[in-house]
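> tool_call: predict_assembly(chains=two)
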Amino acid sequence: MSDSHSYPHEPTGVETRKLGMWVFLSTEILFFGTLITTFMIFKGSDFPGMKLTDVYDIPFTSISSFILLMSSLTMVLAHNALEVNDQEKTRVWLLATAMLGAVFLAGQIYEFTEFYHKGFELSTNIFSSSFYVLTGFHGLHVFIGVVLLLALWGIGQRQKGLTLEGGMNLEFVALYWHFVDIVWIVLFTVVYLI
Amino acid sequence: MTKIIEPKRQSSIFRRPSSETGIWSWITTVDHKKIGIMYGYAAFFFLLIGGLEALILRIQLSQPDNNFLTAAEYNAMFTMHGTTMIFLAIMPISAAFFNYLLPLQIGARDVAFPRLNALSFWIFIFGGAFLYSTFIFGTAGAPEGGYLAEEVGWLGSAPNGGWFGYQPNAGMKYSPGTAMDYWAIGLQILGIASLISAFNFITTIINMRTEGMRFMRMPVFTWMTFAVSFLLAFSLPIIAIALFYVTFDRKFGTTFFLTEGGGDPILWQHLFWLFGHPEVYILILPAFGIVSEVLPTFSRKPLFGYAAIVFAGFGIAFIGFGVWAHHMFASAISPVAQAGFGLSTMVIAVPTGVKIFNWLGTIWGGKLKLNTPMLFSLGFIGMFLIGGLSGVTHSIVPADTQQTDTYYVVAHFHYVLFGGALFGIFSGLYYWFPKVWGKMYNESLGKIHFWLMMIGFNLTFGPMHWLGLQGQVRRTWVYAEETNLQFWNIVVTVGAFIIALSIIVFMINWIFSKRNGEKAPFDPWDARTIEWTIPSPTPVWNFSKAPIVKSLDDFWHTKYSEDEEGRAVKRAEADQILLDLEEEGLNPSEHIELPSPSYFPIVLASGLPFLGYAVIYKSIPLALIGSILLLIGGFGWGTEPLEEEAFEDSHE
């Protein structure tokens, strides 16, 4: 961790924590890659019941997708605010990001419940199983992101405030958050649109 | 000189741990060396258990139509033997080497994320304990049309669907009970541990190299660690998702791998081997690295073709992702796929061959010193070569179809993973023994160990080649007397017990040498890499001053120069340099900050088995306990600084 070692390190010039996050995100691509591949394999099959496409509510999901994408914007604003060391604004934008993420999650829970009432349970058919596992796995990531953002917001309340380096820093969480958003763009296209 | 460490008592949830000795110092340590040692002992413990399971299997097979084990018990034993040896023995022993040596070889004071390192160790421990708790809590019922419930017994209550967990055999219908759930979730937990250490090592190698340690000056062992970490990082997510599907199929009624609900059992095979084949290289590349350190040292020559060995290693790692379907030639894949994967399997033999020739080039014309680590390395080359050659025969699809599920395959992968990986690992254990313990091992016991193991190994796995070609099938608890397979099966069983004997010799040597061995100098082998420039045993702070590396094999060039004919000549000042190094290494002249120990890695890790049990028994309270432990661990972790400000060394 990048705390002050008297020792020379970081020959690449990239902060160690950030580098670690990049490596982590590269494996996340394989997590989602495997899930998406499986989903695509089973997407055509409507065995033995109806198709999930019959119950999609595209306008609703579009709105919640938009909300999630906007959270990337607020994340960038938080980062910009911290660059000029405006602690107050940083906290506001962080909270906004977390809230937008939470709204997206609420939307997903609402969507799952709706599907469930229409008779689409996890084990209804292979397609519904793939759908729930894939989008649920992404939802879990958003949830973890919201927890990280709130933790960051909490740390920001303390005397010293937030910095761009060391500890649980904002850039570190921001990388993760943007990644989760980008994955959603892919998922929205793959799952809902094509 | 005394080292005084006075942590400031800043509390987050618990008071900061401060023990330097005793059990708490091990539980809370974030020191890569202590973690490496713990990895080593834990993995060796599991190696013994896996070996015991192998002996039980061999007792059953020593007689035709034997009834020492029931079919159910036999299934459980070979499943646990494979799973244990791969995930709980060889992988963590490699992790032990990575942990201990990687920072030393690149001249760092610790890995990039010391607490994450402790976390991955504790997750591994809890994952192993979780998997083995199946013997206490797990149940394996009798499948429809299979063996009878009364044949299952205590031994049979372990996972029994094979380490490969083929579907639908490992599904609820044919493997009822909870044992296979323990397997799926246990591997999931162990996978998290390996993933975390992979991030950690990749980041460490990229970002923690000391001044002058360019990529092309890194020791080959470090390079192989790098390659293995990439393999882990990119293959484990695939199996993680596949294991999710298995768990969903078994616990929540989905049908990802079950044809009755439109799922696809072949998909499991693809996902499993997309992980499983890179896994083979995850097991063998660390041994490649170790051997590439040992051979030059005891041949007193530089490694022949350093760059070729490094790039061949990465070539293997890369192509390793493109050969997985050669495990599935007997499954439903198209002839085009069979031809393609047959070809890629032949291609991957090329970089492997490059390495073999480079090792031979290294020892060619060298002044060989045939001590225990060198013997194991030489044994490694021979045994791995046999395993590699029998492996290439599998790229011929018709031959492979004939050999599938016979003992020929068992012989092949044991030559690679035992004759290869484990011989390499033993070579490394002897080679770095003086560095870790500051004592010398007993050379004659070491040689007895080597020869016993060499003989036992070949008696065990050599005859399996022809047993397999004669048609003895693997994963089957009996063979009929009329098949005339008995003679070689007895030989194999005797061989297995000779291996067990050799392991006992090894343990005696280890225990006595560690206690009463001769004191080791800090450079007993006249070695080449910078981990030998520091005192033995390694001080907590590793290097007193960040070393500055000027060339490949930097330490060697410090000690030797060349004459006109290119022969190594010891520098006049070499002895003085060594004395200075030891003096400096023991008495650091500057202030050293080390990461402080922490409770939170073990707290965080302890939450995972609870979540595992929660899924198996669908229990909300267990899930809550697990989540709370994760939360406490995560919160405490996030709010405590890595280094306490007052944590420092002062000198008297």
